[in-house]
Amino acid sequence: MYDLASKCSVLLAKDFAHNAFTVILNEETRNSRSLYVEMNQTVISIYPRLKISKMYNFSFTEENCQVLDQSLENSTMNSRRGTSKIEVSDQKGVSVSCDFQYDLCTVTLAGWHHGISAGLFGTNDNEAGNEWTVPNGSFTDNVQEFTQSWQVNKCSLVPKKEKPCPITAKQNICKVFFEEPHSLLR
């Protein structure tokens, strides 16, 4: 167990043999994170803090993803959504579930994926000695080097300080209408 100090999007787990699944932890704005899960030509973006998820199917479209708000009846993937939990799984033994109440997500892999996946979650082969493998196949015992090696985007390790913009009259009106706790439009 270790703290993920990175403010970057990182690869948690991926099937490198058959490309059956990919799980990425994305860094969003305002210190929020989302979980990107790809299985069977379908992408699920889970936003635990917002308690929402969105599904996209990119097997039908090439340029634009089709947002699927309804259940995926014709898909090879199962999706179950409760009031505080979402679970997605496929027929090949990959399951991702997020409990919004406890801000906890889990990834479960069946034995079919033994030894063919890697990422920040390790190599999934029951060998403790190679859990800190980096993408080029070498090993490290440095947490920072390990997490940086699995980054999927270019980003700086030190968060940049943003200068606050001056609030204009129009922005103030929008804030009163849409952000104030007593507003009916919030």
The residue fraction in helices comes out at under 10%
Order of helices and strands: EEEEEEEEEEEHH
Instruction: Report, as a whole number of angstroms, the end-to-end distance.
Output: 39 Å
The major β-sheet equals: 7 strands, antiparallel
Helix count?
A: 2
Number of domains: 1
Q: Segments where pLDDT lies below 50 for 5+ residues?
A: 60-75, 157-163
Indicate the structural class.
mainly beta
Mean pLDDT across the residues is: 76
Radius of gyration: 19 Å
Strand content: 25-35%
Side by side, the strands of the main sheet go 6-5-4-3-2-1-11
Number of strands: 11
Domain VWFD: 1-166
Pfam family, one: VWD
Protein name: APLP protein
InterPro entries: VWF_type-D
What is this structure's SSE topology?
Blueprint: E1 10-15, E2 21-27, E3 33-39, E4 42-47, E5 52-57, E6 66-67, E7 77-81, E8 85-90, E9 94-99, E10 104-109, E11 117-118, H1 143-149, H2 169-178
Antiparallel strand pairs: 1-2, 1-11, 2-3, 3-4, 4-5, 5-6, 7-8, 8-9, 9-10
